[in-house]
Specification:
Layout lengths: L2 H31 L5 H19 L1 H5 L3 H27 L2 H7 L3 H13 L5 H17 L10 H22 L8 H21 L7 H6 L3 H25 L5 H8 L2 H11 L6 H26 L24
Membrane topology: Multi-pass membrane protein
GO cellular component, one term: plasma membrane
Organism: Streptomyces roseochromogenus subsp. oscitans DS 12.976
Length: 324
């Protein structure tokens, strides 16, 4: 490979890797600004910053969407809202390390679900990798001793399942095929915000965005802006830029390091202390998901990787996936 091409590849890789680092840190950032009573309110505030930028950046293409594409993207937005709610409630009730590692099971769940839908069989190596990941999560949720997983762990597991549903729906819905990625993302996030706004309008569902904002200190505002500006906008536009300069598979591979950074940030900055069962579980989750991902990508074939995130805050799926 020519030196200039190799250097160009590294320059493309660095911003994408930074997105993975940012996404990995997003679990701790969300945990710092959110309580059980402010989940929906914080989500409204977060996207009140990001959504207008996306609308302004893609207004012409957004106007070009057909009514069928708008309905399809709106339906995907409902699923996306469920993912955000499960992840955010989950991270409130578990550690940032657990959240980032459990959600990485999407990398295993998605090929499993695809194989069921298509009536194909995955190789034994993938099934072994999936088993390793599940064993890792079982150990990870034990903390410093053996106990049942807490509610936050189960919510993050539900979010991983919801992400899988979102990926499958996006890949199989005829109505959104051919839609511009920026427009598709914007409509999905807009639909999700409508859900969050409806939730905060219901009595007894938690604080309003205004009440939550009134209780924010300087650190909370910085955390919210970090989630909006870096974990959403920066991540989206870097991916849009990088996927034109390298392969989707390469972008997906780099973004797949997100759980590594989630664990590193949770332990080093967040003070998570998973104990020896949790540490062993973290290693098994990372090994299992990386192994399973490589097997699934080989089965899929070159140029057919579908797990390229283009929107948001931390998962890999064409269109608009998220992490908290």
């Amino acid at each position: 490979m020519p030196v200039t091409a190799a250097r160009s590849g590294r320059l493309t890789d660095l911003p994408v890797l930074l997105v993975a680092v940012v996404w990995g840190s997003s679990y701790l950032a969300a945990k710092g600004v959110t309580t059980e009573q402010t989940v929906a309110a914080v989500l409204v505030l977060r996207f009140a910053v990001a959504l207008p930028v996306l609308v302004a950046a893609g207004w012409r293409r957004l106007r070009g969407l057909s009514a069928v594409q708008l309905r399809g993207a709106g339906l995907l937005g409902l699923i996306l809202a469920g993912i955000f709610l499960l992840e955010t409630y989950g991270v409130v009730h578990t550690s940032a390390t657990n959240a980032g590692l459990i959600i990485s099971l999407t990398m295993v769940f998605t090929p499993l679900a695809e194989s069921r839908v298509r009536g194909t069989r995955l190789p034994g190596a993938f099934m072994a990798a999936a088993g390793l990941s599940v064993l890792g999560v079982a150990l990870l949720t034990q903390g410093t001793g053996f106990s049942a997983p807490n509610g936050g762990d189960l919510l993050m597991l539900g979010a991983a399942v919801a992400r899988t549903v979102h990926v499958l729906a996006m890949s199989r819905m005829e109505s959104v095929r051919g839609a511009d990625a920026l427009s598709l993302t914007t409509v999905q996030l807009g639909g999700a915000v409508v859900v969050f706004a409806a939730l905060v309008a219901l009595p007894g569902t938690g604080a309003s965005p205004w009440a939550a904002a009134a209780g924010f200190g300087a650190g909370d505002w910085l955390g919210l802006l970090y989630l909006s500006a870096f974990c959403t906008l920066f991540a989206f536009f870097v991916q849009m830029w990088a996927v034109r300069r390298t392969s989707p598979s390469r972008v997906s591979l780099l973004l797949g390091t997100e759980p590594v950074w989630a664990a590193a940030v949770g332990i080093a900055v967040g003070g998570d202390r998973p104990g020896w069962p949790g540490l062993l579980g973290a290693v098994l989750v990372l090994a299992g998901t990386a192994w399973g991902r490589s097997v699934a990508d080989r089965e899929r074939g070159p140029g057919k990787t579908t797990e390229v995130a283009t929107a948001g805050t931390g998962a890999e799926a064409t269109g608009a996936e998220t992490a908290v």
